[in-house]
From TrEMBL, chains C, D:
<dbReference type="InterPro" id="IPR050166">
    <property type="entry name" value="ABC_transporter_ATP-bind"/>
</dbReference>
<feature type="domain" description="ABC transporter">
    <location>
        <begin position="4"/>
        <end position="236"/>
    </location>
</feature>
<keyword id="KW-0067">ATP-binding</keyword>
<dbReference type="InterPro" id="IPR027417">
    <property type="entry name" value="P-loop_NTPase"/>
</dbReference>
<dbReference type="GO" id="GO:0016887">
    <property type="term" value="F:ATP hydrolysis activity"/>
</dbReference>
<dbReference type="InterPro" id="IPR017871">
    <property type="entry name" value="ABC_transporter-like_CS"/>
</dbReference>
<protein>
    <submittedName>
        <fullName>Nitrate/sulfonate/bicarbonate ABC transporter ATP-binding protein</fullName>
    </submittedName>
</protein>
<keyword id="KW-1278">Translocase</keyword>
<dbReference type="InterPro" id="IPR003593">
    <property type="entry name" value="AAA+_ATPase"/>
</dbReference>
<dbReference type="GO" id="GO:0005524">
    <property type="term" value="F:ATP binding"/>
</dbReference>
<keyword id="KW-0547">Nucleotide-binding</keyword>
<keyword id="KW-0813">Transport</keyword>
<dbReference type="InterPro" id="IPR003439">
    <property type="entry name" value="ABC_transporter-like_ATP-bd"/>
</dbReference>
<dbReference type="Pfam" id="PF00005">
    <property type="entry name" value="ABC_tran"/>
</dbReference>
Length: 318, 223, 281, 281, 223
């Protein structure tokens, strides 16, 4: 929120600044680059503050309570929030792809057909990657134990924990976001079962979208436009400067966690996603329909009004 | 995104009697909290006795316990998963870690709070060592133990909700899923369940025992 | 054969940060024969309870040692039954359970129950078997604690003002009871009291303790035949003798306490040693 | 002018689930004049402390009422100072703080300190001002609690066996002190004791209570001039009269307690009423 | 993937003296736990007194507290965010919710555990109402309060770690980031920090106070 929630922003300690949320992760490279290179400050009239979040849920909560005004988030939480009646609008994309289906070295899973009787994990229950994998399994005539099927699914496995679960042989496969899928492959000899672009909705489905609230959009259209300009600059930069982008992301990770992801993992993971401003609204709808089909949702999802890329389209066509 | 009272009750009804997801989750959680609570009482009780009785244990083991107990359940979870190979034991482990501490500390203080004259009297009757602990110190500590048990119960639930994140069912899992899908009504209906169970246990167990203990100890007229 | 031997015992409480160490008594030596009844008399705070606690093994002597049956005392044990100055009942046990608790180590459950009832009857508490300590009067609590110690039937009985809170009739009844038990079972009894008559009536010897510095002032033999007649001449003579020494002790304390005030008008009014002071009680 | 009026008071404890209600006494009426010194005597458990607590406003009467200065008692207050049967000292306060605590409501800090020291000197505890209750002997605790009540200087003093744990010299000294204070400040005093002589020595009237059923048995006037001589004939005569009634009371309890045993051989040995029973103490 | 001791110490050093992220996070967390802990002592103390003294409050407010306290911090968080408009107050709110309960319950039992004779004595000296509470009941409850404070401290940390997820810095957030990026050495080094702070507070505050209290109360010779 901005105007009538002005003092809430004040409580957050930054006066009338626009608060932008993002995750410290590879597919948020556009946001990270935009922040680190100062594009947002340059483009926007108001002060900008950045808040990073560990997961989509916390991001949405922050958006819901006016802690942040806009930012980068996965499409799953955004869609769920929208369908639950939340005030959110997708004003652009930041990255597409970035889902990899991998299996443990000696799990005996080489192809999707081998999943029967095996187990897999996903970061969330009904999250982007979960729906993607389950949809593919459904095509092969398999269901998870959630629906009484033969594939065991364990959700809420935080990507980092997947590593130890693979090591201990607790789980056979994973629908992992990048760069974790690649990490499992490169460092722990996991098999790639389905490459990112062969996954359900693969290249089309956004991995990160830029969102704001309708309220903020209506009250601050100029700020949103400026922010999207900065976003566009950042996306363009990443496309042209892969090496520097990866280093910027890794630096940020280091500054938060004192750890760096192996460079080969980052480089490899970078090829499994597409940093772009191109928003495939129909892919989002297809994903939501799949989610409904898989009974993650109770009602037939209608994403009308969820995506509004008018401003960004205007900027890209300039 | 604010939950509505009516919606919450509706979700409660659906979850319990229609889809049954709350019913199933409730039973899973109840089993875990039940076992975890009893384990916490047992372990916390024993540990508390040890810390209360032995100065050496208090200064070594006690410090260790103090050091470890500020660590939140979400941090224990990955460790528990590694230790227990992801089994149900991991959840129990986290619940016990959350619930044991208040029991330990209250039992410990109960031990230290025993009127010295009672200990002396029992010693002259030939009681010593574990019998002294069992027959004098623990009974004398009952009022403290009650508080410890109450806290163990509450913090056991808290830890359980965090532990059930690992996705092996239970109310905690349902709670998180409800949060993920922004079904705030369902979140509230789970809170209602937890609260109602808390009240039932309070009325039918804790407060009954407390009333009996306080009146027998001659403390009920204190105020 | 000496039963209880107290050998050059001194007790000093260490004192805290700003408190100095406090020596209650030093160099106390006393040997009590098997089957002897010895009373401890002395002004409040002179260390009677402390000495009893050391014999009971509940306190440790700073110097010297105590032995019983030639075995040095290192801790408490069921061979010495103690009646504490306070009643020391377990608040979560009712009257009967409190007595049974003391018997469980030596007796079967059934025996303990019967014995507890027997001794509680002795102290007139049959009607209060199910009462909890907080439902009892001061005297009743003390009687439970007496019944508890007697029922244990220990070789040595250590009694710290056991009859202090009792009315005179109950007290007399218990005098007889204790004497009866003592004679029949040949117990060794160490008995703390403030009542000079009580001590003469019951004991073989009376140990008179003093304070500042604490220690034994004098030990009196009581050569009177039992049952003793408090109105007899020897009885009264002994009473007066003890009284006069005790009087000196307390006057010393008073003088220290009052300092120059001691001879002032008010103090004079209060503390005039009138002729019948000795007979008051 | 009657100061304390106890009007048809009955006390029944409700009893728990399996316990029956227990009536301690019924229909107790007593009026105490301003400046009067009244003693309560009676066998252990007859309700002396209970009655005192009702007057103090700490217990409520099941029936009847108590009024002081024509105002009905509804709760405790600083107009009535109480010496409890147990010492009732705050364990976290040292001796001096315990006394000051009772004075803080009425006196400035400095006054309270001076007063506390004065009264602690009176009970010979000047050296123990900084000691904590657990570092005191039984008698010392009782003396602190006496000093505390006296220092409060209340209109009515309610004393429950205040001298029970004291040696005879200290007791006599405090008898004088209490008498001195009473005469000088014209206090109304209700005094529970087990000691018949003490009650005759100190009081204007003696209320004899009995048990089963509990209540007042007889009220004795003590017409003797002060200071009283315990060896005088009137003194001894009164003593014997009270003793004989008390004896009957306790014999009744004994008979109930012992049932058929009462005339058995052992009981006979124990409870023969030999001629000098009355003089024992 | 198991953390190594050496690596943890290294991470600790880097975090404190090189990158400084642990130092910054530590100070943020310390401020929050400090304020939250004091608030919990205050609120929990007052609430405990109320519940211990008033039967009515115990049966109404007490039930409410019981019902609410089993609810885990992660569920409180969104509610706190709404209540406090996402401000730093939200974190404090969650910390206080976690830490208040043990303080409340221990204070409550402390109130009920006061020897009736001490209350009676004080009443005859003219003390009543709040003065009685303040001068008699609370001092008498100190041993219980100590246990309550210890538990409040530990559970305050636990709640803080959960609450700091909302992305306003602090050790909790660093902990989660470290976990998410599988820097287990850093996780352990944060646990070390929490443990060391716990031990420092224990040695320099709690155990000092406890030793003094127990010896003054005459309880130190109990065992
Ligand atoms: N823990 C302690 N620390 C310091 N001094 C103590 C401690 N316990 C007892 N004392 C002191 O030891 C002395 C003797 O105490 P004790 O209880 O033996 O006296 P007593 O002869 O039994 O007196 P009374 O007849 O009043 O019961 C007292 O002056 C008391 O202050
Ligand atoms: N809370 C209670 N519940 C039930 N009965 C009680 C309770 N308090 C006291 N009594 C009973 O009331 C009776 C009188 O007790 P009280 O303390 O007044 O006796 P007392 O005359 O002071 O005796 P003593 O001389 O032994 O101190 C006792 O028989 C006791 O058992
Ligand atoms: Mg003594
Ligand atoms: Mg009494």
């Amino acid at each position: 929120g901005s105007d009538e929630e002005g003092d809430s922003a004040g409580a957050a300690g930054s006066g009338d600044a626009v608060e932008i949320g993002y995750f410290p992760n590879l597919d948020h490279a556009a946001g990270i680059v935009g922040k680190e290179k100062g594009y947002f400050e340059e483009e926007m009239a108001a002060d900008v503050d950045f808040l990073n979040f560990p997961n989509g849920n916390d991001f949405i909560e922050a958006l819901d309570t006016g802690v942040i005004d806009m930012g980068y988030v996965g499409p799953g939480p955004a869609i769920n929030y929208y369908l639950a009646g939340g005030d959110i609008v997708v004003i652009g994309a930041a990255a597409n792809g970035a889902t990899l289906i991998v299996s443990r070295e000696d799990s005996g899973i080489e192809t999707l057909e081998d999943f029967s009787g095996k187990s897999f994990c996903t970061p969330g229950n009904g999250c982007t990657h979960n729906v993607q994998l389950e949809m593919m399994l459904k095509d092969k005539g398999m269901e998870t134990n959630r629906l009484g099927g033969e594939v065991e699914h364990q959700s809420r496995v935080n990507p980092a924990s997947m590593v130890s679960m693979f090591e201990q042989g607790q789980i056979d496969a994973a629908a992992a976001p990048e760069p974790w899928g690649t990490l499992l492959v490169e460092e722990h000899n996991a098999n790639v079962v389905t490459e990112w672009n062969d996954v359900f909705l693969g290249e089309e489905l956004a991995s990160v979208v830029v969102v704001t609230t309708n309220e903020f959009l209506e009250e601050n259209p100029e700020e949103v436009e400026s922010a999207l300009r900065a976003h566009k600059r950042a996306v363009d930069y990443t496309a042209e400067n892969e090496e520097d982008t990866l280093e910027t992301v890794n630096d940020l990770l280091y500054s938060l966690t004192q750890t760096r992801l192996p460079e080969n993992v980052l480089e490899e993971a970078w090829t499994r996603m597409e940093v772009t401003t191109e928003t495939h609204g129909e892919a989002l709808q297809d994903w939501a329909d799949a989610s409904y089909e898989l009974e993650f949702m109770d009602d037939d999802p209608d994403l009308d009004g969820f995506v509004d890329t008018e401003i960004l389209d205007g900027i890209t066509s300039e | 995104m604010f939950p509505s009272p009516l919606g919450s009750v509706q979700q409660l009804y659906i979850g319990l009697f229609d889809t049954g997801i709350l019913r199933v989750a409730l039973f899973e959680s109840l089993e875990r909290i039940g076992i975890g609570f009893l384990l916490a009482l047992l372990i916390g009780g024993l540990l508390g006795v040890l810390l209360g009785v032995s100065k050496l244990a208090d200064e070594t083991l006690g410090s260790l316990v103090i050091a470890l107990q500020s660590v939140p359940s979400i941090v224990w979870l990955p460790i528990a998963l590694i230790l227990f190979q992801g089994g149900g034991g991991a959840i129990l482990f986290v619940v016990v870690l959350g619930a044991t501490w208040p029991m330990t500390m209250n039992m410990r203080m109960g031990m230290k709070n025993v009127q010295p004259i009672l200990m002396r009297a029992a010693k002259t009757m030939g009681y010593s060592g574990s019998e002294l602990v069992w027959r004098v110190m623990i009974p004398a500590a009952i009022p403290n133990v009650l508080t410890g048990a109450r806290l163990a119960w509450a913090f056991g639930w808290r830890a359980l909700m965090a532990a059930e994140l690992i996705g092996r069912g239970g109310l905690g899992r349902t709670l998180m899923d409800a949060r993920d899908f922004y079904n705030m009504d369902l979140v509230v209906s789970i809170m209602i369940i937890i609260a109602v169970i808390g009240l039932l246990v309070e009325y039918f167990i804790f407060s009954k025992i407390e009333r009996r203990v306080l009146s027998r100890w001659g403390l009920s007229t204190a105020s | 054969m000496s039963h209880v031997i107290i050998d050059h015992v001194e007790k000093t409480f260490p004192g805290g940060k700003n408190a100095q160490p406090f020596t209650v008594f030093e160099d106390i030596s006393l040997s009590v024969d098997a089957g002897e009844f010895v009373s401890l008399l002395g002004p409040s705070g002179c260390g009677k309870s402390t000495l009893l606690n050391i014999v009971a093994g509940l306190d440790t002597a700073s110097e010297g040692s105590v032995s019983i049956n030639n075995t040095q005392v290192t801790g408490p044990g069921a061979d010495r039954g103690v009646v504490f100055q306070e009643a020391a009942l377990m608040p979560w046990m009712n009257v009967k359970q409190n007595v049974e608790f003391a018997l469980k180590k030596q007796h079967s459950k059934k025996e303990a129950s019967a014995r507890a009832e027997e001794y509680l009857k002795l102290v007139h508490l049959s009607r209060f078997l199910d009462s909890y300590p907080h439902e009892l009067s001061g005297g009743m609590k003390q009687r439970v604690s007496i019944a508890r110690a007697l029922s244990m039937d220990p070789e040595v009985l250590l009694m710290d003002e056991p009859f202090g809170a009792l009315d005179e009739q109950t007290r007399m009844m218990l005098h007889k009871e204790v004497q009866y038990i003592w004679e029949k079972t040949n117990k060794t009894i160490l008995f703390v009291t403030h009542n000079i008559r009580e001590s003469i009536l019951l004991s073989d010897r009376i140990v008179l303790m003093g304070t500042r510095p604490g220690g034994i002032r004098k030990i009196f033999d009581v050569p009177l035949a039992r049952p003793r007649d408090p109105s007899s001449e020897e009885f009264t003579a002994l009473e007066h003798e003890i009284m006069s020494i005790l009087e000196k002790e307390i006057e010393k304390v008073m003088r220290e306490e009052m300092g120059d005030d001691f001879r002032s008008k008010k103090a004079g009014l209060l503390y005039n040693s009138n002729s019948n002071m000795g007979d008051h009680i």
